[in-house]
Amino acid sequence: MICRVLPYRVADGPTNMALDEAMLEHVARDPSEAWFRTYGWSVPTLSLGYFQPWAEVEAEPRWRNAAKVRRATGGGAIWHEHELTFAIVIPSTHPLARPNTALYRAVHRATAEILAAHGLDARRHGDVDPAAEASHPFLCFAGRDGEDLVAGGVKLVGSAQRRRAGAVLQHSSLLLRRAAAVPELPGAADLADLADDPRAWSGVVADRLVRDLGMDPIPADPPDDMLTDALRIERDVYRTPGWNHKR
Questions:
Q1: Strand residues in the chain grouped as ranges (E)
Q2: Measured between alpha carbons, how far is 67 from 213 in angstroms, rounded to an integer?
Q3: Active-site residues: which are they?
Q4: I need a labelling partner for 234 at 20 to 30 A (CA). Which of 43, 64, 226, 244 fits?
Q5: Domains of the chain
Q6: What is the pLDDT of residues 63-106, one digit of tens each?
């Protein structure tokens, strides 16, 4: 299968989330190809998981003046600053679409091998500590799930999914450096002598990950219909209090 790979892009929360959802809609309409992109955040942003209550944000003073957006995917809140974020959308007919852990494991395995090639040993948390129970605090990277990638007890990669008829979207975050807003969460460059610029990781992650998922990466720009959908979704969903405060 071909996987269209969009160029690395920096944008704010609503724009990033809207383009990811537009990719999901595109693959649901045309399941002949997968889509993948890496991106950054023009403004440090707190993204809430789809099911998280807005009241939890209001209860914590450090988020009061922060940019905020609710994701379409589940999981805990993520502070997006010094990280590489990437999204993949595959058709529901893809061999990794079911069970949901198949895509998590394939993406995290490829990411672990990339980190290992740069001298950092990261492993699936469930393999490091099989007896550990999953923990799901407000911040995603403060918790642990069996599928997360950890190094020296530090969570470096977490993912979450959204499914709809015909397609699956998976968001993933590779934490690169500790941020002042979340000093309790170190990143990969805090553990080893690694680059903390997401652009330095974008190309290698896109190429290696897509190939490891058994697809051919083809560079592409977003087609006009995807951009039109993204603008509509951004306006009608991710920039509205009705979406962001919905729970």
A1: 2-5, 9-11, 34-41, 45-48, 67-70, 78-80, 83-91, 123-124, 149-151, 154-164, 167-175, 216-219
A2: 33
A3: 140
A4: 64
A5: 2-244 (3.30.930.10)
A6: 999 999 999 999 999 999 999 999 999 999 999 999 989 999 99
